[in-house]
Amino acid sequence: MSPRPGLGLVATQHAVVATPEHPLRLTDGGVLRHVEVAFETYGELAAARDNVVLVAHALTGDAHAAGHHGDPARRGWWDNLIGPGRPIDTDRFFVVCPNLLGGCRGTTGPSSVDPATGRPHGPDFPELHVADLVAVHRRLLDHLGIGAVHAGVGGSLGGMQLLQWLADEPGRLQRAVLVAATARLTAENIGFSSVAREAITADPDFHGGRYAEHGVVPARGLKVARMMAHITYVSAQGLEEKYGRDGIEGYLQHQGEAFVRRFDANSYLVLTRLLDRFDPFADPAFAAAVASGDPRVLAISFDSDWRFGTAHSRFVVDELAAAGQEVAHHELASPWGHDSFLLRPPGYHELVADFLRS
Amino acid sequence: MSPRPGLGLVATQHAVVATPEHPLRLTDGGVLRHVEVAFETYGELAAARDNVVLVAHALTGDAHAAGHHGDPARRGWWDNLIGPGRPIDTDRFFVVCPNLLGGCRGTTGPSSVDPATGRPHGPDFPELHVADLVAVHRRLLDHLGIGAVHAGVGGSLGGMQLLQWLADEPGRLQRAVLVAATARLTAENIGFSSVAREAITADPDFHGGRYAEHGVVPARGLKVARMMAHITYVSAQGLEEKYGRDGIEGYLQHQGEAFVRRFDANSYLVLTRLLDRFDPFADPAFAAAVASGDPRVLAISFDSDWRFGTAHSRFVVDELAAAGQEVAHHELASPWGHDSFLLRPPGYHELVADFLRS
Prior knowledge:
Chains A, B: InterPro entries: AB_hydrolase_1, AB_hydrolase_fold, HAT_MetX-like. Chains A, B: Residues 52-344 form the AB hydrolase-1 domain. Chains A, B: The active site is at residues 156, 305, 338. Chains A, B: Pathway: Amino-acid biosynthesis; L-methionine biosynthesis via de novo pathway; O-succinyl-L-homoserine from L-homoserine: step 1/1. Two copies of one chain form a homodimer. By secondary structure, the first copy, chain A, is α/β, with parallel strands linked by helices. Chain A folds into two domains: 13-186 and 278-357, Rossmann fold (3-Layer(aba) Sandwich); 187-275, Rna Polymerase Sigma Factor, Chain: A. Chain A has ten helices and 14 strands. The model of chain A has no long low-confidence stretch (mean pLDDT 96). The longest helix of chain A is centred in the C-terminal third of the chain and has 19 residues, at 244-262. The radius of gyration of chain A is 19 Å and the shape is globular. The interface between A and B is large, with 36 and 35 residues.
């Protein structure tokens, strides 16, 4: 059953972290009385419980970060980074990768059944903040008996969650690697998000978010949303070299159609809205809280990333520096745009490996 | 009736340039047996007919380039550039601005009635090339008794048309100003086009392009297409400064809704497809033909234009230089992205004015 010797992956696991007796109170005042989290782990937890690495996934990722479940073609999204002898070395670390609250890949989200009504939350799923995503994962670590975490590693929205961790529970994450992350989306970022949401909600099959009860999904809108978003994940050069003028249309069609099969439209709305709202340094107490935990922070950005590029990482670093915190920032050359965090541009994996050993 | 003293605008005019006896044979083999062109003129044609400036509009522009037709709030799209004492000086030049074949603003296009069937061409409108757009405007100038043209001035697709003019009738355009133009879209450009087309054709109200017969328009898809395209017309900095994180969503909604009221979906499909196909320098004879006409060419690009930026202009200039033609190229600083060609970044209007006087 072990898909790779030494990886230590068994199967995707599930844990209940909120119940009617111990509900999850959300930042905006909403309450969730049942929250289940899907997660995977790799490697072995040390007896001293001091070798934990938390992997935080991006907008449309999931708990399946490494290895495979029987089909070697379906390896985890960060399989190149996690494993025996890899930068997140499962010979040494116990890696936990949980799926996000609000998503649709095993953790409670809009497509989950609301126990109060017996039907999917759908559009009634409460609005979330990044802090709510983090709250669920903090409960998961509590549930697993894990206190301090050696390091958190995340790309894009994954990095944003780790930043929030640092302020919400100073000291618990001893190190954080924020890859292609941001602390504040630009108007352009939000513009693309809003077009994606328009495509989804204007689809006649959206039915105000109650599409599940109509036995349909807003496939047309979700496909358009993903096709557009995908362009923003790749650099112009990357699109040219990989697909070219003749191949790009078919490639985007394929991307859009594959996405519709695996992702829920209401989840996409909830998660993009929380991305758009994220602006933690607007409160000066945020940077001060992070600094009080004295974490080691490594920010990595990629020069061709026009979604959350170097200016975004620099903003995070400058804000933390202003609070007296030392943060390392590396801009790496990579032709692949925002998606570089999933690939292996020169120097990237070495930076992560060295930092985790520090 | 004169909206501005000296502008010489009377009203939008119309001319028939193809008839069953004198049909328009298209590049791809299609035939149009009735083509009408909407155009405006400004200034006075000199007795020697040697003071003509042809203004070529962009993808969603129209013949109404300057002045107004009674409502001062509805000035032409290049009103800042055209008029008495302006860079395209109507005290000196006779300016002709015709609407595009395939469009929907007065010149024959998919929404025009096909005389052969008595119903709109709709999706049966033939596929076009830039050369077909130019062929119609060449016929218009013939019709107006205009031979040589002092200068053509166009931005974006307008500039692309002028480039085609230079090869299709070498010598007729004595000067060309290509602003924020391209001779070859990138994979990224085509990617955005293809998402826009997907949004339109997937709208259930599209009805395979026969929406007019159903009494509807694919408004949802066309709105999404325009919202997305609009982001690509403006720089990230421009969006930040003009609208900001809080204003961008409402602004894009407004842009999308206004566009649906004035533009036809089938026209958008035909025109974006011809943009995507344009690649004239793939044929070495093209550059040689342009050079044989020995035109003076001025290319202008804007540093924040991430649609048809400086690399696009440089490609045109390099191709023409390789054919022995001298071309001036200026990259101007402007924070407004591709839309800069409609605005007035420092130095831009002066370059155009000087070049037209040369």
